[in-house]
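Researcher: I'm preparing a figure for a lab meeting and need a structural model of a single chain. I don't have an experimental structure, so a prediction will have to do for now. The sequence is pasted below. Please return the structure as tokens so I can convert it later.
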Amino acid sequence: MDRVVEAAKVIAGARRAREKLKPLPAKIAPRDEAEGYQVQRAVHDLLLPESGALVGYKIGCTSSVMQEYLNVPHPCGGGVFERGVHRSGVKLAASDFVHVGVECEIAVELSRDLSAGEAPFTAEWVGEAIEAYMPAIEIVDDRYEQWETLGAPTLVADDFFAAACVLGEPVGRYAAPDVREVAGRALINGAEAGSGRGADVLGHPHNALAWLANHLAAEGKSLHKGQIVLTGSLIRTVWLNPGDRVVMELAGLGKVEAEFA
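Model: Understood. Here is the structure written out token by token.
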């Protein structure tokens, strides 16, 4: 486990200093995604004092547009932390990130635990565990010297670009539209920068949630009541400049806004 801890120290140190992460030395770089998740958990432990508690998860690469962009053909998970969760209308400093980007997502809040012992989970099962849906901005950070060369195990170890999120008002499960049909679009300074539909996320955002629940269960971990899950981007990542204003509109779920000063 020493190599896992050493890799985590390098990643956590780069995040604290807002320095671009270089490829990890071969002697500590995670050899596969399973080891990447071990490093990720160690990074979470190291960053806990400044990030706050783990309050949920993000799922990356759930749409073909993102799988093609990142050249990772399957979902990957990362953590969502207390101090990185913001409400619509927030103004954030672009300088708090290395190179900030945004994604348009459907977030869910859980109404009950999805315990590891209940696996395997289906989309129908996890759908019954949703309290509400929310329009969401996932804030990502290209904090890498060259992410294209790092490989999925190292990206997983560093929470797969995750930095923060902005959540809109919740819409209760029974009041929400069929999320497969929800049309989303990103507006940057009033101009459309991307669009997609809920069905672009593994055919249904509930499929992404089921993937996460099963992935965690394989590690003996559970999802918990009240946790937030970002189910994956409907659009390709939009990289921002200081001063950009972001609005994500998700038909039937509302909109969510943020400004990056």
